[in-house]
TrEMBL record:
Chain's gene name: thiE
Binding sites annotated in the UniProt record for 4-amino-2-methyl-5-(diphosphooxymethyl)pyrimidine: 41-45, 73, 113, 142
Native species: Sphingobacterium kitahiroshimense
Binding site for 2-[(2R,5Z)-2-carboxy-4-methylthiazol-5(2H)-ylidene]ethyl phosphate: 139-141, 190-191
Protein name (Swiss-Prot/TrEMBL): Thiamine-phosphate synthase
Cofactor annotation: Mg(2+)
Chain segments annotated as coiled-coil in the UniProt record: none
EC number, UniProt record: 2.5.1.3
Length: 212
């Protein structure tokens, strides 16, 4: 458990239209919030900025309705134009420092994915609001990943930082509790909710595992 309250969220939905496999992604998002998701990231790949922005605007209507933060993956222009609450980036994207230099008001939430322990020493860490542990377990949803952290990796990161830790990668109801016990503060999922027949129930059950 961390002592940092800058990211007080526990169940994080990472969503794209494609990952919802024919279901309406806005409907999935809304049901997921009703089930207990408390922060949402829109993560669209291979879209023009105009199309990305259009989807972000639609999703923002829902996150605003329920007053939960909207985070945009890796597109500063879209994040700022839509008035998102924050942006999530990886090692190969614009850096947290680069974001802070151009976007300071209102202060955005900045998430930063960690792929190795060395990265914990770099200057981007203090500029991030939370760290993504990516991926905890290898996943079909994102195949270009580097490190499979495993539960041991979460423990090692937890020993080295007080930053809020968001675990992502093949997290499902069966392993959710163990990921929290290893030291994650928040669970981020795609398929456990987007791929479910009942996103509200899936979110509710995951939230219960976290709160147990
Ligand atoms: N970053 C690391 S793993 C991942 C992302 C976006 C995908 C996680 O998807 P799933 O379906 O929850 O394994
Ligand atoms: Mg990225």
């Amino acid at each position: 458990m961390n002592l940092d309250t800058s990211f007080p969220y526990q169940l994080y939905l990472v969503i794209s239209e494609q990952d919802c496999r024919g279901k309406n992604f806005l409907h999935v998002a809304e049901r997921a919030i009703l089930g207990g998701v408390d922060v949402i990231q829109l993560r669209e790949k291979n879209l023009t900025s105009d199309l990305y922005l259009a989807k972000a605007k639609q999703l923002k209507e829902i996150t605003d309705k329920y007053i939960i933060p909207l985070i945009i993956n890796d597109n500063l222009e879209v994040a700022q134009k839509v008035g998102a609450d924050g942006i999530h980036v990886g090692n190969r994207d614009i850096s947290p420092r680069g974001i802070r230099e151009v976007w300071y008001s209102p202060r955005p939430l900045v998430g930063y994915s960690i792929e190795n322990l060395e990265q914990l020493k770099n200057e981007q860490i203090p500029l991030s609001d939370y760290l993504g542990i990516s991926p905890v377990f290898n996943t079909e949803t994102k195949k270009d990943t580097i490190t499979e952290w495993g539960l041991r990796g979460i423990v090692e990161i937890r020993q080295r930082t007080d930053k809020p830790l968001v675990a992502i990668g093949n997290i499902h109801i069966q392993n959710a509790r163990r990921v929290i016990q290893a030291g994650a503060d928040c669970l981020a999922v795609v398929s456990a909710i987007c791929g479910s027949e009942d996103p509200e129930k899936a979110a509710y059950e995951l939230k219960n595992e976290i709160l147990k």
